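Document type: protein sequence-to-structure record

Subject area: structural biology

Format: plain text, a pair of labelled lines:
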Amino acid sequence: SAIPVAVHVELPDRPAPAIETIAYFCAAELLANAAKHSRAGHIGLGVARSGERLTVTVEDDGVGGADPAGPGLSGLARRIGVVDGRLRVHSPPGGPTRVEIILPTYV
């Protein structure tokens, strides 16, 4: 990433391969979006499993204003919707931005 990223992972085991692939793609896309649009100085990337849910969180200290209806985030929402995943975006003007991708651990 063009912006420093702190990574925190809490996984007792690996999710299903298809879920792992989606999680990786989403994390990569969210990091690229933050580097391109956020003007952030720092990004946090978290991956955690709770029961049958895998949560990928990307949070930055940038300017905020990420639009869930924009092409990038709406595309991610469609991709994760295929496996009954959810996208949560909190990005007020002025920041910070927090995006959560919530996926099942199986397909």
